[in-house]
Each structure stands twice: as structure tokens, then as C-alpha cells.
Amino acid sequence: MAVVRERRQLNLRLPLPESPDRRPRFPLPLPPSSNSASSATQCASFCCSDFENLQVLGHGNGGTVYKVSHKRTSAIHALKVVHGDSDPDVRRRIHREMDILRRTDSPYVVKCHGIIHKPSGDFAMVLEYMDGGTLDSLLKTNGTFSESLLADVARQVLNGLNYLHSHKIIHRDIKPSNLLVNDKMEVKISDFGVSKIMCRSLDPCNSYVGTCAYMSPERFDPDTYGGNYNGYAADIWSLGLTLLELYLGHFPLLPAGQRPDWATLMCAICFGDPPGLPEGASEEFRSFMECCLQKESSKRWSALQLLSHPFLQKESSCSSKSNN
């Protein structure tokens, strides 16, 4: 089995759940890509003196995240300051994330407004500030999500994934802590440090990146669960686990509170049945989750197909009636 042959290459971040101080990685500026002139995020020119520091939001991955206010406009941003002595792996991920953010322009993907270089060798990204934190923090603060709220979350993330996938970008690390939210319950995809731009339809793709817990079965064993690794389908599996975690209140492949080693988690993903829903869940929700959590990658629905699933259509119709 592939996972046995490549066991040492697995990038496992255990135990679960991950610590709350983990933050998105920090991009370096890159020259604009040749195909990004019309659709990419346009980064403005800033300097550190333009901002007033309001609050430290967190530390990790070689830098610090601040909540800042632009002195002239009073606009609130998230400022990610990266230390110049970050290790080479962090820098590679920084380059990757910045390249992707320069190519994207979607209301469902966090925006980069600018890059700052400091004389010390540090640099910073000026990012869209999402005042609600992450879906992970929202789960811990407010508890589990209802079906109607999950449908709204799923619709927004699927719109983001459909946009990314249509531009040949796979995220490879969809999970609650990488989905940002604001007080309007707008959800945006963040943290593109392990993402990949697929230049060709059969572009080789290292499947052992991202957070192990949310990896799809074919990322461990592509020979058994789908042949060639399909990064688009893997994003859908990760989304399915994410939604189920928000519904159940714990990581869905293991009992609540269990903190597994990598072998336990790998066996649950590869050899266990796909996680199911408890009694009381609607048939539409069950069907939707089954479309996301097919162990064989070719049987999973795409982001575009899932956007037309009855679960999202039903909840969208109910929300429209309640607002009238």
C-alpha cells in the first residue's frame, strides 16, 4: 500500500484538535504572474507607519498576526508580520501562498491588500480582517451548527472552491481553522501555504501535505481509492469532514476527545467506513454528506455539482421564505 511505501513522507500534525495558536502562513511578494493582470488581487503600497497596532491576534509559523487600523482611512486589517530568519520550508510556503493570492479575486477567498518590506528583513502582508475568527473558534465559542447554518457555510465554501478549482487551484488543507468568518457570517477560505496551481491536467501533486486528519483516503493510498491523486476531489472530502465536525462538535472519524497517533488516524481514514450522521439529521443532509465523503475519489461530487444539491437548495428556499 502506498502509505507503507511513503510512510516517512507523511506530514502529520497530531494530536487533534490542533492548538488554537496556529495561524495561516505568511506570503512573500512575487512578480505578478503572466495571466493575472485582469483577475488577480491588486496589492497596494503600504509602510508600517501607515498603521496603528490595535491588538495581537496570535503567534506562530515564524511570525505574528496583528489587528491594525489604517491611520488615514481608519480601515481595519489583519497584518501578518513574518520574521526574516524563517526557515526555508516556511519561505517556500510563503512564496506559494503569495503567488496564489495574487491570482485570486473572489468574495469567498480572503483578500491580500498589500505587502510591506522592513529594513530588518521582516516583511508583512496586509490582509482582509475577519472579525469572527475561524469556524473552529466559532465552534468552540458557540457550540455546534444547525443544518440551516451548515448549508449556508457549505454554500459559501463551495463557491470558493468552485472558483479555485475552475482556476486550477487546489487548496489541500480545508479544515475549520482555515475558514475565516465575520460578524455577518460571511465565510472565506484562507491559508494557501500548501496549495497548488495545476498547470496541466495530469500535473504531479505531492499528496502528503496539509493536515493529516482531513486528508482523503486516496492521499494515503491512491492505488486503492482512485488511481491518480485528484486534488479537487480531495478538497471535497476535507470539506465534508469539516462540515460534519461543525455539526457533531468533534472530529468525526474518532470518538469525542480521542487524541490518536498517526496510525490510528490513518486506519480510520483508509479502513473505516465513512463517518455518518446521527438520528435526527434530514435525508437531504445525509445525501449531501454521502456525496462529499465517498471513499473512492471518482464518486465524489464536484464543487459545482454540490452547489445544486437539494440540501443547499432546500435551505436556501427556507431562508428566502423566512426573510420575506
TrEMBL record:
Region Disordered: start-end pairs: 14-34
Transmembrane parts of this sequence: none
Domain Protein kinase: 51-312
Keyword Phosphoprotein: yes
Listed EC numbers: 2.7.12.2
InterPro entries assigned to the protein according to its UniProt record, in alphabetical order: Kinase-like_dom_sf (IPR011009), Prot_kinase_dom (IPR000719), Ser/Thr_kinase_AS (IPR008271)
SUPFAM superfamilies documented for this protein: Protein kinase-like (PK-like)
Keywords of the record: ATP-binding, Kinase, Nucleotide-binding, Phosphoprotein, Serine/threonine-protein kinase, Transferase
Catalytic activity: L-seryl-[protein] + ATP = O-phospho-L-seryl-[protein] + ADP + H(+); L-threonyl-[protein] + ATP = O-phospho-L-threonyl-[protein] + ADP + H(+); L-tyrosyl-[protein] + ATP = O-phospho-L-tyrosyl-[protein] + ADP + H(+)
Enzyme class, broadest EC rank: transferase
Top-level lineage group: Eukaryota
GO biological process: response to other organism; response to stress
Key word Signal present: no
GO molecular function, one term: MAP kinase kinase activity
Family statement drawn from the similarity comment of this UniProt entry: Belongs to the protein kinase superfamily. STE Ser/Thr protein kinase family. MAP kinase kinase subfamily.
Protein name, per record: mitogen-activated protein kinase kinase
